[in-house]
Amino acid sequence: MSRTNSVSGSSEAADNFPGGAMASRPVHFIWMLDCSGSMSVNGKIGQLNFAIREAIPEMQQAADANPAASLLVRAISFASGASWHVGEPTPVDSFSWEDVHTYGGTDMGAAFKLVAGALDTPPMPQRALPPVLALASDGQPTDDWRAGLRAIDSTPWGKRAVRVAVAIGDDADKSMLKEFLGNPELEPLQAKNPRQLAAAIRWMSTAVVKDASTPKIEDARPATPVGPPLTKDGEDEIW
Amino acid sequence: MTAVRETPAPAGDWELLRGAVKGVAKKYSQDRCSAKATAGGRAVVLAVADGHGSAPHFRSDMGARWAVEEFTACAEAFAHEAVRVGADAALWPGLRAEARRLPQAVGHRWQRRALLHDANAPAHGASPARRAAARERFERQGAAGTWDFTAYGSTLIGAVLTRQMLLCWQLGDGDIVVIDDGGVPHTPLSTGPDMGDETDSLCEPEPWRKTRTHWQPITGGPPPAVLLSTDGLSKSFADHQGFLDFATGVRERAAQQGVAAVQKQLEDWLERAARYSGDDTTLVAAFAAEHDGAPEQTAQEGTTPA
């Protein structure tokens, strides 16, 4: 016998609909944020917090525009070690931002291993759209980041994830970030001032979300959408 | 040898259902489908194809259409042969061999259409001279050359149903559900849950090598229902059981309310599904028609088709 479509709330008797409950597929979006000591220089960490907070309404709009996907947001901070800043996959509608703070080195590998654990199935469901891994860093990793990256790549969802990265300032390890992206045709975004950082975060929160939320065929690793033009001649390079 | 007395083959051996809706926010659908009776109504050919739709596959609506057309053309010929062979089990090995060859035949025909199209209108643009060179190369090498079919990528699911057998072929994602006399759904070519939206495709080299085939002799009368759908349908349900419940529910409603009544509601149902999957959603089905009168004569082993 058919069941009530619990998602739409309409009853079987009312519409004669056969079948079980329907639901849109989840898109897991995970921030991985560098909270090393260098992020406190020239207000980078403050600008990063500001940019993420300011991007939330646009992220919610991007999610609203695609009801076929349910956007769930989490965040990892890494410095000396890594930990979940927002551990629970949170529906974007109820997502709010609490500031991250700087506290040590740049243990990006630890962050990768942490996210790899979340990308295993379970806990990640098989019925989902590809997750989004959004990485922001201003420096050189201080631990074995390659081992962490291998851990991500060894998970079923990790190798299918949409990956984006922003290099904050000139000291960021762009070649390492490029390796994280896993696509030789892609470059990490570059942010050398607050305006560029805000644009990068906004793009990660909207265009990437929109792209990841759209059902489509992925022949191999999902192609990260082309990023926004961030560098503008004559702009101050603070970082 | 004993002659087979085939029950006259009315057009109503099966009743057919067909529905397709466009994915939410998509400009047009890249799904294509077909459901038709053939061999004087003694066989049914079903097909659905799901063009990939993303930017690299910008001609996949054409690829899906060709997939359905070429499969249907090959499957109709196969269905005529299957009806001719009937229940003569001695001829089944040859039929099975033909069933195994069918994906390659379909693949070659599909590739030829894609090649012709691309030679005349190169997917990535070309000068008149390059177009002429491409056409010349096509004439020389045909499908044996190394060609890029990415723009036309599509999945393909097809089935042939006669009174004696059910044949199914599947390349890529999507679903085939066969409902037995007890109302139990079976998914003969399922490979388990998909991760994301990855799929095998006609645009890959030698796609027939990835085509799965299911052969099911029918001994006690045709299955009450065979349903083929693109993945937009199954992915709209919170779990796989919900999708199977949909398939059995459609069959129940067809039995209780009639296929025509189900056909009227089908588009609404598929539109609801598409809101959750976001994808084009297509379903074709064949239901065994109930006939009044004496039960059908069953064929005997070692008989010669009439």
TrEMBL record, chain A:
InterPro entries: vWFA_dom_sf. Residues 212-239 are annotated as: Disordered. This is Tellurium resistance protein. It comes from Streptomyces lasiicapitis.
TrEMBL record, chain B:
Residues 26-271 form the PPM-type phosphatase domain. InterPro entries: PPM-type-like_dom_sf (IPR036457), PPM-type_phosphatase-like_dom (IPR001932). SUPFAM superfamilies: PP2C-like. This is PPM-type phosphatase domain-containing protein.
